[in-house]
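WARN  no MSA supplied for this record, continuing single-sequence
INFO  ligand: flavin mononucleotide
INFO  echoing inputs
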Amino acid sequence: MTSKARIPADLQGYEVLVAVCGGIAAYKVCEVVSSLAQRGAGVTVAMTEAATRFVGAPTFAALSGRPVLTSLWTEQASADPQHIRLTESLDLLLIAPATYNVIGKVANGIADDAVSTLICASASPVVLAPAMNPRMWANPIFQANLKKLGEYGFETVGPSEGWLACRTIGRGRMAEADEINEVVAKRLKMSPPVSLSSDQKTDD
Ligand SMILES: Cc1cc2nc3c(=O)[nH]c(=O)nc-3n(C[C@H](O)[C@H](O)[C@H](O)COP(=O)(O)O)c2cc1C
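INFO  complex generated
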């Protein structure tokens, strides 16, 4: 006998793109993707080259039920470039873990891989979950970049203080999966799914 799902599909109809970057906390993003998918959201994962060294793309493909984008140059199913198609009807872009590097690139208009190109092509709200060593977090160049993204409307969740993989205790630990999911769900529910509003459009 199979048991019935108890998790409410409260995110049905919403499309979320999760951009995974190269930090140890990438393993926690597996839980984020799984939970969003179980709540009914359509989840697509894109990974930086560094991210694939921490978690394999097949893990995210299995958890999301969709192919994972790791390169701008993989064969495409349609004639549209993937960075445009994947950002077309998007409700939210989550960057987790958001590395020092990717935050610096986005804040300075760099689009040189799949993840940074998707981010610059997206017009949807963005939630960032930074994770890094406390000295990287405190670096004034990084803080200026993060402030700049905040001014452009990017929302940041975490990091908290705690035990870090670099075997120190300090600020830079990525927010836990539950906290990230709650911020994402709250942000999504502020508007109906983009796909619903585009379905209602008529040609004129
Ligand atoms: C074991 C290990 C752990 C790392 N953890 C982090 C991290 O938590 N945060 C971070 O910003 N960079 C971290 N880095 C460095 C990034 O992987 C590196 O800057 C990389 O170029 C980031 O690429 P991306 O932003 O394209 O994913 C780590 C590197 C290694 C080898």
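The pocket of flavin mononucleotide is lined by residues 21-25, 48, 50-51, 97, 99-102, 131-132, 136 (CB under 6 Å).
INFO  checksum written, moving to next record
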